[in-house]
User: Fold this.
Amino acid sequence: MQTECHTSEPYKKVLLLNASYEPLNICSFRRAIVLLIKNKAEMLEHTGKYITKNILLPTVVRLRYYVKIPCKEVPLTRQNLLHRDNHTCQYCGISTRQILTIDHLIPKSKGGTDDWTNIVIACNKCNTKKGDHTPEEAGMRLLKLPKRPSMRIIFEISKMPVIDTSWQKYLIAWKIKE
Assistant:
């Protein structure tokens, strides 16, 4: 029995893989279907629902030809920092949606820079306690060392509240939810 789906799921996302099975992007099911119809991609996973009589709703597609795409870095933004540090103070571990601040491990006044390895999320209390010192000078320890997120696509997937189960075997080699 065929289940028909008349595009009632415009929010449905599809994992797009390179020919090497490397995650490239998350696209709409419409974009994925265009790639399939133009024979630029092949369907690896689907929902089992039909969009038309003979077109299944894809969840994972792979490009037929390898595409070299320059590695895009994850932009250094407050939202991305909060996600990387799991909305948790990196000194005391308090996880709250209250006022969380951005703290420079090496303060800017001492030559610190705005980069992934010098910035952490801290609660107001810890940031005030640390002040214009390094964590060592203030006698404070980090819960984990800050690092730059690896691949932009992996970082974006890790932000998703729910990851489609059909994506798991294609993402297993990449560290999701670091």
About this structure: Residues 81 and 121 are 7 Å apart (CA to CA). Helices lie at 29-37, 78-84, 124-130, 135-138, 152-159, 168-171. The longest strand covers residues 41-50.
